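re: that complex we talked abt at group meeting.

here r the seqs, copy pasted straight from the sheet so there may be weird spacing, ignore it
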Amino acid sequence: MWKPPQRIKYQTAVAHWPTKDTVGRAELFSPINLGSIELQQRTWIPAMVPWRSNEAGEVTQDVIDWYARFAQGKPGAIVVEATGIRDIPSGPLLRISDDRYIEGLRRLVEAVREASGGQTRLLIQLIDFLNIRRRPEPQKYFERFLIITPEHRAALNLQNASEVEVRQALASLSDDDLENILTAREWDALQFGARDRVTDLGNRLVADLPQTLPPLFARAAMRAKNAGFDGVELHYAHAYTMSSFLSATNTRTDGYGGEVEGRVRLPLEVFAAVRASVGADYTVGCRFLSEEIINEGSGTDDACFFAKAFAEAGMDFLSLSRGGKFDDAKQPRVGAAAYPYTGQSGYECMPAYLSDEQGPWGRNVEPVAKIRTSIREAGFTTPIVTAGGIYSFDQAESLLSDQKADIVGFARQALADPDWFEKVRAGRGSEVILCRYSNYCEGLDQKHKQVTCELWDREKLNEEGVILATDGKRRLTAPNWMPGSAR
Ligand SMILES: Cc1cc2nc3c(=O)[nH]c(=O)nc-3n(C[C@H](O)[C@H](O)[C@H](O)COP(=O)(O)O)c2cc1C
Ligand code: SF4
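got the structure back, here u go
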């Protein structure tokens, strides 16, 4: 992952944890309504893909164990990882793309209900993403993938040569020459792997997204409701389709791009279809970006506009993330696909302990506070979920008392210690195991390996019932907490 050039090292530490008494009065542990449901506390575990599903996209026992372990800590809400809405092979990504998935998802809902004693609300994040290919071997790219055009022939002065000869000529060129001859898209496909963009109006499937996506999201949301989830989160963040519609880089000319009004149109139409399908009393919100952190990308002013539009349309919550784009991703090795969390925008999404003067904690706080203020000034009371480098009670509580957010997201901190919520509530904050923001977990995610935390995955491997990762070395869930000690 990209790191700020300053490379300043930060260490997570908490000087003071609250007593049980203080916690009893804390806003963080007070209830809040999210549409028709109530969260018992304002704590939230944002979506995190742990790669526990299988090639069929099913809920496996590992998926159930993963979420049940988080539920033992009894946070206010857990959002199940990005789950695919299209019934197509998607590697081991969890899917909700057909009714056959409902039964497994229902078992997941029941497991979380049981493990949390009914105290944790469970939502699921619905995702659509566009085609992306692995970075090709140059030889193969020129032999098979590149479509030979008259422009290539003209540049090579090979107007009358056979296609095979043109391909061979291209394959023999230096990178400098190739960069001059290939279009920017062809060069990008060679360097990073071909990737569809929402602006590819010449591609029928992409052009038709405004027609195809609303019913796909609507049916997926209905399945979530039938499986017993308390709500759905529409994934409008990071590098995926809906976020790309919101992006300032979306120059579509069919009414679904350009100015903010055009860019927000499909996200609103998707929401309208979802709402029509699940009804007014079902909790529906979205996750989108406070800032894209890419050249020419959307900033907080755009996000304020989108937030007002979503609130006005009747979303029940707005969860704000940051960055995580393909646009500045690092070049993958040949045979691998680009990963959207490797550039600066990826760093802003999951800031790590090597940072700049600002440090890795709470980098999303001020942009989100600005968005919250803008919708409050417009008269909307929609709850705002913030996240990014939050690990201590004081940090979380002051965000709420300063009215910078309504709900606080703990992603990696909950991964490092799923019992954070119960420990702090019991006045046992000193037993919390603090996330180091090492991004070891994110490195595993990048390789689509089962995600674990370096702080516990080699601990107590002999404990009864421990399930190991496929590498045979790491446990898949955090050890159980024994009050009186950290674990
Ligand atoms: C392993 C891993 C997987 C993630 N998967 C998702 C995801 O599926 N959807 C999403 O919106 N964010 C995802 N994120 C981002 C987190 O939800 C969160 O926004 C980010 O980690 C910053 O919050 P934190 O500092 O509390 O960890 C993921 C993060 C990690 C570490
Ligand atoms: S591996 Fe553990 S300590 Fe490191 S960032 Fe992830 S959750 Fe935090």
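couple things i noticed - The CA atoms of residues 288 and 320 lie 5 Å apart. The pocket of flavin mononucleotide (ligand 1) is lined by residues 46-49, 81-82, 125, 235, 237, 287, 321, 349-350, 387-390, 409-413, 441-442, 445, 451 (CB under 6 Å).
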